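Bumping with the actual sequence this time:
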Amino acid sequence: MSRFFSEKYRELTPYTPGEQPKDTVYLKLNTNESPFPPSPLAQRYARDAADKLNLYSDPESTILKKAGSKVFGVKEDNLIFTNSSDETLNFAFMAFCDASTPAVYPDISYGFYSVFAAVHNEPAVIIPLKEDFTIDPADYYGCGGTVFIANPNAPTGILLPNEAVERILQNNPDNVVVIDEAYIDFGGESAVSLLSKYDNLLVIRTFSKSRSLAGGRLGIGIANESLIRDLKTIQYAMNPYNVNTMTMGAGTGALEDIEYFEKTRTAIIENRRILTDRLCALGFSVLPSSANFVFARHSAVSGETLYLKLKEKKILIRHFDQERIRDFNRITVGTLDQIEMLCSAISEILEETK
């Protein structure tokens, strides 16, 4: 870093994104992108919107709110659209955490939580997952901070049932509970169903996974009107034109094309079952996943070794170096052909290690 870099960030450890190779020879199963292209309607709306790129985008994302209101069954005032769910999370850290209100989240979860806490110099309370990598709701009761829970969790893929989410809300009436539902469309009930009962609930969703728009960078916050106003205050202070015009069009098409959404989501859920069965047949232990990825380990080969050997074969999966999960790898659910390529490569690697 340069000699001009601010002292307050010199010790900052940034988020580490999954590898994004510049060539196309790799089979990418490392960043939980959809293996399917955006819906044809999303693509058409994005192309149509290109004619308006000479003008600023709508800071209120009006067309997205109209479509989102129908899909999620909430009022337009219950929605904020952002430049990715990461931006929604950033706004939430800024709006609902401070020196007296720490961020509270699991020790094994989405890596951006610790980054945002550090960026904003906010205290954090980090709660270990149980031995089986599940969340104990009681660990969050009366925690005195803003709770951030990825559900299903990442990188484990394990779902926290809605009744457990509700108990956390009930036991933190004076603090916001943020449920980060990047993967909820692949299994489980959304906490949006609890919105009318709890004014301290913020649900965050993304278009990157189940709606095939990772490159579009589009996220949503869903909450009561007062929390949305808080987030809008941060938006207008930071980046009022945060969703670009073409992404707005693509997002609207993705919401309207329910048939395509259901078709691709169902395919990924079925492929997850097939991938899990194939890995188990190869001797892996696989955690129960409700996401578009699986979290797996093998007793005969370390997580790092498997990751490196697959990379040599031009297949990318995600390995994490945290002590508790070092033996695991996170593997994105791909197409049936991609699953076959992956499992054939793993079989070769397991033969080589005998």
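The tokens above came from a reply further down the thread. The mean pLDDT is 96.
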